[in-house]
Amino acid sequence: QGDGYALRLEQTELDSERFEAAVAEGLELRERDPDAAERALAAAMGIWQGAPFADLREPPPAVREHAAYLEREHLEALEAWAEVRLSLGQHRDLIPQLAALVAQQPYNETLHAELILALYRDGRQAEALETARALRRRLREDVGIEPGPAVRDLYRDILLQARHLALEPPKPPGNLPSQLTLFVGRTDELREVAALLDESRLVTLTGPGGIGKTRLALEAGRQLRSRFPGGIWWIDLAPVTDPTTVSDEVAAALGVSPGPDGSVAALARSLHRRDALLLLDNCEHVAAAVGKLAATVVREAAGPRVLATSRTPLFAEGERLWAVPPLGLPAEGSRPANLARSDAVRLFVERARAVDPSFALDVDNSPAVAEVCRRLDGVSLAIELAAARLDLLSPREIVARLDDRFAFLEHSAVRAPTRHRTLQAAFDASYDLLAERERAAFDRLAVFAGPFDLDAAAAVAAVDGGSPSRMLPAVTALVDASLLTAVRDDAETRYRLLESLREYAATHLRERGSEHAARQAHTAHYLDLAAQAGTVLGTPDFAQWMPRLTSSYVELRQAVAWSLEHEDPAATLRAMAALREFWYRRGDALEAQRWTARMLEDDLAPVAAALRAEVHNAASFAADVAGDLAASTKHAEEAARLAREGEATPALVFALFGRATIALGGGDIESARRFAREALDECTRHGTRWSAAGPLTVLGFASLFGGGSLEEARSWFERALPLYRELGDLGALVVMTLTPLTVAALRQHDLDAAEKYATESVELSRGTGWEASALVCYGQVLIEEGDFDGAEAAELRALRVALDVGLENWFRPALRELARVAAERNEVVLATTLAAASRRNMPAYFLDPSIYEPLEQQGRSALGDARFDQLVEQADAMTHDELVSLVGADG
Description:
Helices cover 64% and strands 4% of the residues. It has a five-stranded parallel β-sheet with strand order 2-3-4-1-5, sandwiched between helices. A two-stranded antiparallel sheet has the order 6-7. β3 (277-281), α12 and β4 (305-310) form a beta-alpha-beta unit. α5 packs parallel to α7 and α14 (343-355) packs across α15 (366-375).
């Protein structure tokens, strides 16, 4: 026009306007319609072509300002897009994109927080925490600031595994049936199924009847529905009797045509572009036809995936098999509050309320409910059948009738398909299909109480003395028949029998008259295994045995019990050195106390002195952490005497180390130093370098709590640190080095070092009893940082862990730290009660006047002497359960 040009554009033709409109739409929709928001933001990202006006060499100021505005809007849109995708469960696909973005935006805390959360939800907790630490280092070193509260709180919540981090995706299309009853638990299993569907387009859930395959598949579908815009489609094949009609059933459910000839290929073509998940349920009786259909669909259609359930494999090309495990069971001896967290117990309670709406788990009935769930090994159908009997029987009466479980559960009033009305019929059908050799092997496997490897199976069940290789075909046949479950991890494959299947096999084993021989073979295998581990005690090689002993511990316990009942004590105690070290490394004082008490009931005089020394060492450890210093001292003295008699250096060093820690607990610092130096002399004399780690830490504690300098204390612990790392002794690494290093750093006001030591402790100790000590110290760090909510969460978890494994000497410090939190909130009555209760059975070195004196001053000032003294007296008499209930740790 005139001397220039005019570019005429319609409203939708300018890319920046389309970009801004798409972003605005996505932001407006993200709360009420995440799926639509994700599509809008994805469209916006598709429009973005890189830096705006990048081809202008010297853009005028107005253009530069608008470019900067668009860049900011692009970054905000990226953050919002990632947030929406996280809410939709797309964390796994999002991780590489977020990793690239944080590399481009190294100081952007929002993107880092989203990457951290995505990693955590993908099961990569260690990477999530390291990402947070790397951001903190970068901000400190480059900018001189700390991360904001969003990243700090997320880091803390991941360490404490806060429940609110769990994913709750929205609901998309499909034909999933309504839930008539509540789905219970199975968080880990659902995550595993989701991961398998990421890796494979055809996944088959296998397992015996009643294990919960259908319910798990349906719940997986509900939780994954946002990932499949084409919908989740459930096809129940149980009513199908003619294999040739399988494709018709699938086509009818999806509302598509399989073609005029009913061919599977035509069905696959009609599904080609549909991002759908097909749930093919109850496939075992038409497995071949379903396998053909599923393989064709995933081969010829680009979009859909298949999740099938079947008692047997489909034997289809590309099939990934996954055996559905039983529901999680409560640990033996768990308190009622902890029982309620068990998936199996929760299922029992939920189904019990269907026949008795007033039923509730309480102190009286919870042991029986837990026993029912354990006896039925978490098999969901069996638990439901048992719970349905509550209209006529109490939980205790149900337990009493489970010895004849097949008859007892056969006539339940639960309305279910015929194949689910009796366990006996389901098992008979599979057992009758086995060859005689496979039946005999299956029967002998009844002596296993938990998972076992192929070597153990061969040692126990190969009736002709066959090798593991010769045992493999029988094991394969049993797994394919869903009578034996394969449990796989990165290191090995293990196998297990469900409890009801074990009882079924045990009946046949007794009828064969082979039970004693099978149990004898089982005991010999596991005690020999532990004895072999004991030969490398006190060296880094023992760390390689810990995973194997951990995975075999259920069997090892059973072997020890049978041996104590049927064999000479010497046969049992050949496993003692490894058992003592195993209990100590795991912080499992309850197990150590239980088994040493049984062993010491026998006449051990004929047993080698070195082995008897280890029994007393384990008993001393158990009594020490339970706060019984007199018993602990007696056992440690006897252990030292026997170790000298048997010339057993590792046992002697451990006994002297025990004497030193007992002296510390009683406040006798000089005796602690004396025993520690005596132990060090033994290490030097016999060249046992790694055994010096424990005595070195005692000298560190003596400096820390006995008037020495903090620098000296830290130097002792830092000398022990590499030794424990080489030994792979995570428990001692946490309790004997990182935990006191945290305390020392806090006293030096070195908060950075204290946080580093404490967070490493929490990460390393996860899953062991020593997690209690790590959490106590982590809570102390959070208190110093002013994060009282986080500190409370850490200490409440520490209380629960300490009680579960019998660590009384960490239960009390957790109470003390909770008292500090209550005092900060001006909850004076609670603070006074908890502080007083914490003093009972508290090791002397934890009775820190700098903590207790301010608490007492606050209490007396606010309450008056009479009320304060009354609370102290009441607190001293409170039980564990009363204290746990007081602070809400049982919730």
